[in-house]
Amino acid sequence: MQVVEALSADQWEHVTSDAFVPLNCVAIEPDFHGRIEFERFDETLMVSHVTTDGLAVDRTARQAAHANSDDIHLTFQLGAPGIVRQDGHEARVTAGSVTTYATDRAYQLDYSAPGQRQLLVQVSKRALGIPVDLVEASCARLLVAAPDAADVLFATLTESRGRGDAVIGETMRDLAGTMIRASVTGARVLPSTRRGMLATVRSFMRGNLHDTELDVAHIAEAHYISRRLLYELFEPFDETPGEHLRRLRLHRAAGMLAGSDVGTVTQVAARCGFADATTFTRAFHREFGMLPREYRVRAGSL
């Protein structure tokens, strides 16, 4: 992970040119401070965490004409609102928005509101493993409309921060391509790699922990795969899908018990997908070495 910082427009233009692509600063806050933490996986993929106090930048048509790559920027807006413009289109972004735009064409970013944070993926169109016309269609829309697929990619980007390798890079490209396909086609799209599918399955589990009917059979069916393949996805991590699901439920319950949740143990168990309090209490004790009530008391005394 490399880190660069800037305190002026000239410095920001310099660091962004090195990290991303050449840009012009057209507005900047007087006490500006910008920071980029970036991780380059290979010549087709880079992931960056960007924090700024407020600025607006312009990638001119002349700068774009000299682009020596077919990269796009896929950006998760995490902080204050902003505006993205390209090819006569405009998208207003708020925390949770995801955008795609091409770096080989002019664009403008209005991030003048203070408190800006973005998670940015710079990736080659052709490295995504999907038809380029789908990528162009996504860039034309600017906003990505595939929240489930976006959640999977965002979780993977966050969990993998600072420990990138070739396998993780391949998974990120797969998940980015999956998200773009889902957004453009409006259909549910599943990843093509095993790591991508595993990330999708895990995200599905996290989103459905409250469902007492959720089990291995339902998970496999929801992803159009066999139970055998589902087990194979988890084999490298020395746990079964059922064990992973139970661990997720127990840790979700522990967070509730340690937090401001005022529900009873039975209510917490139900919210985490346990059919009865007795089964939950036994499983919780095996995982944490104490009963749920004891855990709540100890957490409250810290």
Write the layout of secondary structure elements.
Blueprint: E1 2-6, H1 9-19, E2 24-28, E3 34-42, E4 45-52, E5 55-59, H2 61-65, E6 71-77, E7 82-86, E8 89-93, E9 98-102, E10 107-111, E11 116-124, H3 132-141, H4 147-159, H5 166-185, H6 194-207, H7 216-222, H8 227-234, H9 241-258, H10 265-271, H11 277-288, H12 292-301
Antiparallel strand pairs: 1-3, 2-5, 3-4, 4-11, 5-10, 6-9, 6-11, 7-8, 7-10
Short structural summary:
The protein has 302 residues and is of the alpha+beta class. It contains twelve helices and eleven strands. The protein is globular and about 65 Å long.
Structural features:
302 residues; alpha+beta; Jelly Rolls; Arc Repressor Mutant, subunit A; 2 domains; six-stranded antiparallel β-sheet; 12 helices; 23% strand; globular
What does this structure look like?
The chain is α+β, with helices and mostly antiparallel strands and 302 residues long. The protein folds into two domains: 2-207, Jelly Rolls; 210-302, Orthogonal Bundle (Arc Repressor Mutant, subunit A). The protein has twelve helices and eleven strands. The chain has helices spanning 9-19, 61-65, 132-141, 147-159, 166-185, 194-207, 216-222, 227-234, 241-258, 265-271, 277-288, 292-301; strands at 2-6, 24-28, 34-42, 45-52, 55-59, 71-77, 82-86, 89-93, 98-102, 107-111, 116-124. Helix 3 crosses helix 5 (166-185) and helix 9 (241-258) crosses helix 11. It is globular, with a radius of gyration of 22 Å.
